[in-house]
Amino acid sequence: KVWNDLVASSEGSGFMQSWEWSEFKEAEGAKVERLGIFDGGKLIAGAIVYRVDTTLGVSPLAMPHGPVLPWHEPARAEACFDLLKEKLAELAGRSGSPVARFEPFICARPAFLGAALRAPLDLVPTPTLLVRLGGGDEDMLGAMTQKGRYNIRIAERKGVEVVSSGTNDLNGDFHELFELTC
Question: Which residues are CB-neighbours of 61 under 8 A, at least 6 positions away?
Fold first, then answer.
């Protein structure tokens, strides 16, 4: 809860830095490292770092939607970033990872990133619209682009239905559809 609260309060983070997502990725076989930075016993920053074993034997240290830093406080964000770099260097030494990928949802590039290059390809699509699910249908549609609303209305006309369940009774249907699609 403490970690997820930090992620939710950080403008540069998203669900791929959530604790649950890291558990999901671990279940898929990814190596996961959870790094936290504390100030006086309070969690203020960190990163969940993912690595996948490959046939090449090396994998980048990936932080989709991360690291989680206090981006609105540049000096503090820089100090936290420096601490993270030290831990990432240790992790890279143990794992043989040749590179670390940072992918926060931030618009302005902070000066403390220095000469770090922008990757030629985003692992996480940046034109992503995050919509809060707590409101009504009109609130969600209103937060979307015109094209998004258009596509949803076409899907409704074509008979696409969205259903939810508090139990796992739909997993079999979903998995079967997923297998057919693959």
Answer: 33, 49, 50, 51, 88, 91, 92, 95, 97, 99, 100, 101
